[in-house]
Design goal:
The chain is of the alpha/beta class. It is built from 11 helices and 13 strands.
């Protein structure tokens, strides 16, 4: 029904408007018990073989919603009924962030991809924390934090302070934290992929007692040397794992079949599929079972998810596959 009836209509409408409308609709469904039960009847699936307990967290299945869809934590009441085993909120920044100018999202239909240039728009850590404080989540929730997208956070010290502000505000909410150092759409680029910057950031975050697992979200465009440096720091600071991966920026990718789109922004879906697989495989080869790996990028089917698991991921996350094919 989604592919044949709903998708042909909504794909004629601005993608950001549809995204916002779907979040509002999902939030409304989550408010009413009868609507949650109907949604669960249509979409939910549970099986004992899918249950895992990792890092002290119980996951009912290994498929989660990636950070970047529910930026402000509005869908926590409905996503369990859609079938997800966990979800990630954000990215959440130290200050409220309006993001980049519109338009900032495009569909690359031939490539089965989304081109995203949102720029970390969200309501800010304090406002989100106040709304979610004390809430009982029915599936594990990850808190994805990043630095506010503005000129004031470009320096190492200011950027780390912004991360720290979000980290502190959200410390009592959710089950794990993802430090997003790889958003390709923020002012000043991705400075905290540099080992000296990242060491400084992790030192600042370590001033807050660690109470839950901490992951780093990696770019698919990193070199092996950069990945090795990040792994070494993850060991030193006793982190728990990696999210592999974020959006990709280079336009030379052979999986890009569309031609009419901007030269800025990061790409998801099939375009990042192989890059994500190779990143998962490399991190697992370097670390074995020392770290937990969450695989993201180009998951459109159970076969895609299982391939990432065979390469070393314990969990997978998706957004684009759900948007393009209506699958979870």
């Amino acid at each position: 029904l989604y592919v044949r009836l709903f998708k042909p209509v909504v794909f004629q409408i601005d993608p950001e408007k549809i995204h916002d409308d779907m979040v509002t609709f999902g939030e409304s469904l989550g408010r009413y018990g009868v609507m949650r039960r109907i949604t669960a009847f249509l979409f939910d699936f549970q099986h004992p073989v899918l249950i895992q307990r990792i890092r002290g967290i119980d996951f009912r299945n290994p498929v989660g919603l990636s950070g970047g869809f529910d930026k402000n934590g509005r869908l926590t009441d409905i996503l369990p009924e859609v079938g997800f085993g966990f979800m990630e909120i954000g990215s959440i920044t130290g200050d409220r962030c309006e993001g980049n100018p519109k338009p900032r999202m495009w569909r690359l239909k031939k490539s089965k991809s989304l081109l995203v240039h949102y720029g970390l728009n969200n309501r800010g850590a304090r406002a989100i924390a106040r709304r979610l404080q004390g809430k009982n989540f029915r599936i594990p929730v990850g808190i994805n934090i990043a630095k506010t997208n503005n000129q004031e956070t470009v320096t190492k010290e200011a950027g780390a302070a912004d991360y720290l502000r979000a980290y502190r505000e959200m410390r009592h909410i959710g089950d794990y934290v993802t430090i997003n150092i790889s958003c390709p759409n923020a002012y000043g680029g991705c400075p905290f992929t540099d080992k000296d910057y990242l060491e400084y950031l992790l030192t600042e975050l370590a001033t807050v007692p660690k109470t839950k697992p901490v992951f780093i979200k990696l770019s698919p465009d990193l070199t092996h040397r950069e990945i090795d440096d990040i792994i070494a720091l993850a060991r030193r600071f006793n982190l728990d794992g990696f999210v592999c991966s974020n959006l990709t920026k280079p336009r030379e990718n052979p999986r890009i079949f569309d031609t009419d789109f901007p030269d800025y922004g990061g790409m998801s879906g099939r375009i990042v599929d192989d890059l994500s697989d190779r990143l998962i495989e490399y991190v697992f080869r370097q670390t074995g079972k020392e770290f937990v790996i969450i695989g993201v990028g180009g998951i459109f089917s159970s076969e895609d998810a299982y391939r990432k698991i065979r390469k070393g991921a314990s969990f997978v996350q998706l957004i684009t596959g759900m948007v393009v094919d209506g699958r979870t």
